[in-house]
Amino acid sequence: MERPGTDSTKKVKRGDVETITTASQVLSGESSKRGFARLWPFLGPAFIASIAYVDPGNFATNIQGGAKFGYTLLWVVTASNLMAMLIQTISAKLGIATGHNLAELCRIHFPRPLVLVMWVLMELVAMATDLAEFLGAALGFNLLFGMPLWIAGLLTAVVTFLILGLQVRGFRPLEAVITAMLGVIALCYLIETILDKPNWQNVVYHALVPQFSGGESVLLATGILGATVMPHVIFLHSSLTQDRIVVKDPVRRLRLFRYQVADVTIAMGVAGFVNGAMLIMAAATFHRAGLSHIASIEEAHITLEPLLGTAARWIFAVSLLASGLSSSAVGTMAGQVIMQGFLERHIPIWLRRLVTILPALVVIFLGFDPTWTLVISQVVLSFGLPLAVIPLVLFSQRRDLMAELVNKPLTTVLAWAVAGLIIALNLYLLHQTLF
């Protein structure tokens, strides 16, 4: 199968030339670079995708889990992260092997009526995702500076426009900004972890040993696991790798994939640390202080000051703001990929950003509870998950599409097991939430 966007035809932005040149030299064996310098040009796509795993929705579920059950559900975060690594690795591999993103492959290989249904549902998922992330950023501005939520919402719109505007300079500047924001979130929670002085023996034990504490803990664990893989970011990740660095030679393509595995491992490792640190913070502060009722982001923010001091409260707000801004920008990018892939139509990114912020602004102006809105948005995401995970596994196990990068039998078995588990948990969570 001939790949689009070969080295000779691909339009390279000026800011990306050095990255692509260095990557090509590494893949061909011509580079003298060693260690991290060899890996550097390949890092980026997974860091953008990993933002979806530390979005404001994760703040809510991890805080609730830690406040109610201490360290008990920390193993759920570990398991979630391992599953996310597998799914995102396959998504990255799909883009490298086929030269198409997941939405494009669905359009090419599925019947037209099914494609249209998938597009409508995935657009709703993208809007629900953006709603949660946009609200999280607005809440971050609100908590950090005390401004009214509607002003915070307008400011969020402006900042995300600026972030998305970096795309005109190529992929590298946007990757750098999103990665920097992930670094800010990680640094904030590293400081929080130092301040809250957790019981490290309990942390290690519960991170590795599965256990529950009553029926409510099962439901909350389902919420954490069920929201692990965001459908929009599966589509996005395959798009980020499809024409970033294009090679035809099978040997070089295998090398490229190995570097992308490293990208996923590092990025998702950072995201896993952040999620674990969120739960640890809630366990070491709220649960230890007998404040198991803490269920909202606002409550957590207010309660941190008397427990850990003013610095902890500010650090929490900064991490929420960085999470909301970066994940909102990434969500808009995913929506663009979904429309282009399913319909072969493209609208300006600023227009999509303008359309997708309207529901969030309506929610803010009507005064709906932000945390409750985050929960409802996660329910909507449950509907879209099968439409991302199932096609991903179906395509990645086809040798005619994937060639030398086709899934190994064990990878396919694990992928179907993870896909089935995630979908089942989302359906269970959906049932429990609505009924």
- By CATH, the architecture is named Up-down Bundle
Helix and strand composition category: mainly alpha
Number of helices: 19
The count of strands amounts to 0
Shape: globular
Spans where pLDDT lies below 50 across 5 or more residues: 1-10
Helix content: over 70%
Assign the CATH superfamily: Amino acid/polyamine transporter I
Oligomer: single chain
What is the N-to-C order of secondary-structure elements (H for helix, E for strand)? HHHHHHHHHHHHHHHHHHH
Biggest sheet record = none
State the end-to-end distance: 48 Å
How large a portion of the residues is in β-strands, by DSSP E? under 5%
Radius of gyration: 21 Å
CATH topology: Amino acid/polyamine transporter I
Q: Average pLDDT, to the nearest integer? A: 86
Count of domain modules? 1
> Class in CATH?
Mainly Alpha
Question: Could you please describe the fold and organization of this structure?
Answer:
This protein has 19 helices and no strands. The chain starts with 16 loop residues before the first helix and ends with a helix. The protein is an all-alpha fold and 435 residues long. Helix content is 77%, strand content 0%.
Please outline the helices and strands.
Layout: H1 17-28, H2 36-39, H3 45-50, H4 56-69, H5 74-98, H6 102-109, H7 112-145, H8 149-164, H9 171-196, H10 200-208, H11 215-226, H12 231-242, H13 250-287, H14 297-308, H15 310-343, H16 349-366, H17 370-396, H18 399-402, H19 409-434
Helix pairs in contact: 4-11, 4-13, 5-10, 5-12, 5-13, 5-17, 6-15, 7-8, 7-15, 7-16, 7-17, 8-15, 8-16, 9-13, 9-15, 11-19, 12-15, 12-17, 14-15, 15-16, 17-19
